[in-house]
Amino acid sequence: MKLRQKLFLYLIFMPFVVWSQHDEKPNIIVILADDLGWGDVGYHGSEIHTPHINQLAKEGLRMERFYVTPICSPTRAGLLTGRYPERYGLRSTVIPPWRDFGVDTSEVFLPEKLSKVGYTNRAVLGKWHLGHSRMQYHPLHRGFTHFYGHYNGAIDFFTHFREGELDWHDDFNSSYDEGYSTDLLTQEAIQNIKEYSAEGDPFFMYVAYNAPHVPLQAKEEDLIAQGYDASKPKFSDEKGYGYQGRGNTVKQTYNAMVSSLDKGIGEILAALEENNIEKNTIVLFFSDNGPDPGSGGSSGGLRGTKFEEWEGGVRVPAIIKWPSKIKGGEISNQVTGYIDVMPTLLDIVGVKEESKLPLDGISILPVLKGQKPVIHREFYLGSKALVNTEWKLIKSDGSRGMRLENDVLFHLISDPSEKLDVRQQYPLVYKKMMTAIEKFENIHYKTEVRPYGEGRKGFKAPKEWKIE
């Protein structure tokens, strides 16, 4: 082969990763934002100042085709199980405070697997949202060794209350720590990094921020940085937020919350450097779904929001950084997402899958290592929506409140904003996608979480959300 041809092939297949067979296992930190939209980060053109997330994108690998579910609990469950939430009845809605439901205990969570290969410390900090009615659903019974945060979603950022009761915990105990929840979670993460790094064993930390999810509440210092004027009225309370921390406008308050989140992420990254473990620590950052409509977030140039399978609801900002292995400043268009987190991390640390429950996600490590430029696959988005490297199909009889009269097909490479339905122009592609989606539509569980509002009337939360 001629030298020019060899050089060409090297450049085409040049790996994102510089790899060795005999490296120590990395520390792993998964940082999950709550309702952060595609257009809410600076590197996607946001007006919000996110210097630390931008720096993470510059130093890490941007995954620009990273998919999640359009609502919270299903994404969180899928990232910890590697399986579609249809497998355990958690696709259609989240787990509300009044619901006696949790992820089936036969499901194997990621930290359970990591415990078998030397990860002695496995912490979850922040929003759990995967079951709180029974002790069997508690994080410390799902493979984690430490829990600090809240069981429910939409807690008050300052009082940490939900449904009139304190929902803030340290392992099994109530925590009376005072402060803004974003700050408290950041402080706990930094303290854990310091302790775990001193012990020497690799650790796993899942930092599940509740920002910038409603209620829209921000610290005054962050509001002032966004132009807040205390002499002017605060935004109206039509949605019944009724909490402290509201700015002059919804957008101003939301921006302040994202800014605070960004600072917290920056402090976590700084802690890795200060404890000399940055190079061999994997940091994976993404959002659990698209922006909540009407709450200040942005889908950028993508169509749709949270609650919808349009790209704006399910395609989120995502970055992976691993200084000793992954070349910074690169962009990957590999179709990947929440269900791939577990199999990819297990592949990295050398865990062989022996579960009786087959994973739906795949390891994208071959792409990271440069062994494959892309892995072609179908990725199910739920509600009869399917995406692959080029195409996206949404069936009219399954769309979540999108009022489609007909099935729609989009060529995402040329039309990422889903403006032009090309089903008629590409009948063979449409037929192939319709056939491919059938296997996903046939996934069913014996029961599923009931509609969100069912059981709310008359519900009284347990004292300090203690699990009996």
From TrEMBL:
| Highest taxon of source | Bacteria
Entries under Gene3D superfamilies matching the protein: 3.30.1120.10, Alkaline Phosphatase, subunit A (3.40.720.10)
> What name goes with this protein?
Sulfatase-like hydrolase/transferase
Q: Which family does it belong to?
A: Belongs to the sulfatase family.
What is the scientific name of the source organism?
A: Aestuariibaculum marinum
Q: Which InterPro entries match?
A: Alkaline_phosphatase_core_sf (IPR017850), Sulfatase (IPR050738), Sulfatase_CS (IPR024607), Sulfatase_N (IPR000917)
Any one Gene Ontology molecular-function term assigned to this protein's record: metal ion binding
Which controlled-vocabulary keywords does the entry list? Answer: Calcium, Hydrolase, Metal-binding
Q: Which Pfam families match?
A: Sulfatase
Q: Where is the Sulfatase N-terminal domain?
A: 26-351
